[in-house]
Amino acid sequence: MWELQLVFLLIVQCIVLIAFPIGFNGIKVTKQLVFIATFLIIVPAILLMVVIGVYSILYVLLSISILVYVKTRSGISLFHVLMSLSLAVLADHIASLIVFKFFDEPTFKGIYPILQVIVFLVMMTVLSLIYKKIFNVFKRMNISNRYISLLSILLLLMTLIFMYINILKMDEALFIKSVQANLFFFIIYISLFFIIIGCILYIANKQLQIKQKEQEIEGFKRYVESIEMINRDMRKFKHDYRNILTTMRHFIDVKDHEGLEHYFYNHILLAERKEVEDQLALSSLNRIQMISLKGLLTTKLLQAHSADIPTYVEVVEDIPTVNMDEITLNRMIGIIIDNAIEESKTLDDPLIRIAFIRMDSSIVFVCMNRYDNERELKIHELFQEGYTTKEEGRGLGLVNLRHLMKDKEQLRLSTKLQGDLFIQELVIGGN
Amino acid sequence: MRIVICEDDVVQLQKIHTIIANYAMMEDNGMTVVLATTDPEEVISFLDQEQADCYFLDIDLENEITGLLLGEAIRKKDPLCSIVFVTTHAEMTYLTFMYKIAALDFIIKDQTEMLQSRILTTLQEAHRKYIQIGQQEKVTSKIQIKIEGQIRNIDIDEIYFFEASPSLHKVIAHLENEHLEFYGRLKDYEDVHETLFRCHKSFIVNRSKIKQIDEKSRIIHLDNEETCLASARLIKGLKKQTV
Predict the structure, then answer these.
(1) Could you state, in order of their start, the residue ranges of all structural domains in chain A?
(2) A368 touching B, CB under 8 A?
(3) What radius of gyration, in Å, describes the C-alpha atoms of chain B?
(4) Any chain A CB within 8 A of the CB of B80?
(5) Interchain CB distance below 8 Å, B224 and A364
(6) A123-146 pLDDT, tens per residue?
(7) Where does A284-325 have alpha helices with state H?
(8) Is ipTM strictly over 0.85?
(9) Helix (H), strand (E) at residue A70
(10) A214-429, what's its fold?
């Protein structure tokens, strides 16, 4: 009877250990998955338990890690696996304590393992919920740094090793005393662990912000420089004007009508138009009140300009600061314009139009570019992970865009293909 | 079709007026210039009492705002009329005018030799639209979506499926060559047309666009190779109705 109940306890714990990372990583439960879990993890684990005892946990951990990693291909999923074990150990200890303290009577002896399982499951649920809360706080910091995930996985692994050394050293005679002591240490250890991770993430977050600020300042500096350049050109143009008028006067004086016509159309008109276009693109930016955005647009305009892509920017009305964080907005606009520039580079006759338009209470950002419509693009393919028109995985842009949109209630993104034009519309509402 | 022209340069105004008047006389299809003026104010006061079907407006670089305001004023009065801008600098205002006023076309003034032919093709386009508006009484195969106070009529045949956006209160319409995101609830589009079918908590599919239904994995393949999901409960109804 006891043996059976022990096996039952083991199975439950295995299932919890498997279910936890699967739930957290959002892996779809299929028949195949259940099959693999049963016959490749649970059954061998129980057999191993009989042979090598508590060390069989190594097998469980390893097999779950492999399964989860194959399914998700992300490091953070391993973190969930390790975390599930730490929490399970914690829950198990708490369960032991509770059962021992409150049900330590002969009448309960027979159903001891069952009680243990029930309390364990309840504790595990509570701990999972707490963990989910904490994890979401960390996730909101929105940092994807390879080193940090590696560091936290190592730290967690260390925690587990420490836990198991303690468990193995446990004195059977003083069972409940050691459980108590262990639990006390575990809780301190895990709390410290979360505090350390929190600190690391906080620092990384600050660093990221500083880096973004630096980029902003860089962009703005470029904007100011361009404006200064325009100013200089203006002055030069004014100066040239006088010369031009003198030359024209010469043509008029000698009544050389043909020469005048040639001079006017070939020298003045062309030069003027080019200059005016370049200047207008940048000067319309001063109607945008978001400094960082101004910087970004300047940078992108200069990029497009240096790639010889005719780019027009329209800002006809004043564009006020919007009620969302500028960093995200800039990233999104950056992605959209980058895509337009990348596509334009492959064309003989490129064109990019960018506009900020005020509509009622919202602001519409439109980016329109020519594309090669012989390629038969399909919009839904553009938004698929890993789609790219280039050789190596640079095509994650649009997927990222949707990802950035996720919990932004006030944003809407529409995409369309119209003839040879590719149009992205980002509506920023609620101002 | 009643036409209004507003152009601040008298010579240009005369030129455009003549081109249109000559064409109207030749074709004899009921086109008349009801107002030709250099003053935008005059157009505004004209709008108070009367209506026209096609407007030719000049926008100056110096006061592009006046062109924009005038366009908006006209649009507010009459959402269906054609508005054409005659300008020297379309590149600085093109998208803005398209989005805010849904301008029919831009005619660039500098290209003097093209002016006449451009005006005439635009005029024909406006006339075609004008006639179409008169015929469009019963619109049964279109679905109306309100976006930013503007209304878009979408042909049912263009729709593949509606998808509830990952974030709440937003819907993405998957159309032919377009993904259109707007505020709304899927529920509101469930019964607007007989071919639309709610196949999943967050999908409404256009049944006439279905290529194949994979019952096992509950994925619906559409004609454009896009896919959407169906739920176990709702896929049955879909099967029954398609067969």
Answers:
(1) 2-208, 214-429
(2) yes
(3) 23
(4) no
(5) no
(6) 889 988 998 888 888 777 766 667
(7) 291-306
(8) no
(9) helix A56-72
(10) Heat Shock Protein 90 (3.30.565)
